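Q: Can someone sanity-check these two? First one:
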Amino acid sequence: MFSTSRIDTAVFNKNWSLFLVWGILLVLLGALAISTSMLTTIISMIFIGALLIVGGLVILIDAFTFWRKHLWSSFWLNILVGLLYFGAGIMLVDSPLAGSVSLTLILGVFYIVVGIFRLINSLSVRQPKWGWNFFSGLLALLLGVMILESWPASGLFVIGLFVGIDLLFIGWVYIMGALAARAAVNP
């Protein structure tokens, strides 16, 4: 279990207004990402593609500067991995919508599998408050079915929607923490 010391709480309480500002900014960014989910999806795919390109280049440079001199068999494996990274990155940057459709298919299948496993786990383990775990599994299963039901069209907006929802909720966490800290400072 995590605990906080009095100094950490005091510093947090002292800076509650900064956390409130960050929270509001994150909520606004989340709302913007949700309202422009297709653009957010495209930007996300281009960013992931760029990361893969850079990662591929790093792996290729490493293959030629280290592995070629020390372990010839690993040299070719690193060349192959570097080229795969680089190629996948180029494809995502070149065609972000096709990439998002593919990733959304994988995401839909993932949520269905995770949902089924959570449902089975919640029913077999029955830990305290097991209903929340069951609900979480049901929600994941439903989410996966909804993604796949509208696939491939869902690939155009789901990733951006998920990014926006995540930003919105983390912003809300910041706001709630800030308001709690404010209440502790000004009872």
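And here is the second, same format, sequence then tokens:
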Amino acid sequence: MTPPRESGAPLLHIPTTIITGFLGSGKTTAINHLLSVKPKSERWAVVVNEFGKIGVDGALLGKHPDVSVKEIAGGCLCCSAGQVFEAGVNRFIRDSLPQRIIIEPTGIGHPLNIIHTLTSGYYRDVLDLKATICLVDARKLAGHRYLENPAFRDQLNLSDVLVASKSDSYGPLDRMAFRNLAARFTPPKSALITTVFGNLDLSLLDIDRNPSRIASFPDAHPPATGPGQSAHAEEMRSHDAVGVAPDSWSMLEGCGAGYFSGSWQAGLGFLFKETALLELLATFRYERIKGVIQCRESWFSINGSAGDHNLSSCAPATSSRLEIIHDSPLPCSEIDRKLRLTLGA
């Protein structure tokens, strides 16, 4: 039975799930699938955190009935566990009155501070934090770069459910690498899942969290201190409620945790040439790329990792947005110049 509450007050013990995974592991695709199969009678809320300065994932999630989406851009949710972030999430919960919450941290985020925040203080009675789900692209396990990253390793350590995503692209060695990885953990994972196209079962959202899981690198990504460090939490916004002037074009750069980002936002007065844009994107080096772009023919979403990307038709957004993340500095000014050359008349 749902506990009684005052009018306009949030439900108590709202089932809440953190979905983690390193850059390009398929988190947004998986959340999109979950939203598409959610019970029609339920109200859900999604909090999306992005490393880049301009939110993209909110638009990539699209629009789903009875789903509210908030974005936090320009940093890691794990570094915003202070009062500013909590106040923003509190308002979001009060405004949307969700019956279930999904939280997607940035791919380079450390989950420990997020888990601590969502299980203590005000949230102890408001949220019921369920099993943390971690998506892994097993093709990346062959190299040491991912397995030596403290944030990635603790995403694995603190997860209750381990998901091998994009499994249609695996070879026998990739499948073996995932099995070997999963066998390392004590206590064992509550569930091991293999998926294609992010097809997660709704039942995973109701698995209980095991609080005995321990981070190996608890100090690898310390929480921010001071109002300046957590101020970006005020950037929380609904992706379908934000627009920019038709002639507005902005570029923002960011860096942190050994990664660099370039983010672009263009008003509806700018139309890109699809062929020219595709040819340009093929020349970029990146760890992660995503965006929603208004081309002369239609709107397209861009989604890719490790130099491989695809374009798909998508619903119109309030502006064109592009985010590029790499493990070395990006030539953002040069990219900006080349992007402008792909604009149509």
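A (reply): Looked at the second one. The longest strand covers residues 14-21. The chain has eleven helices and 14 strands.
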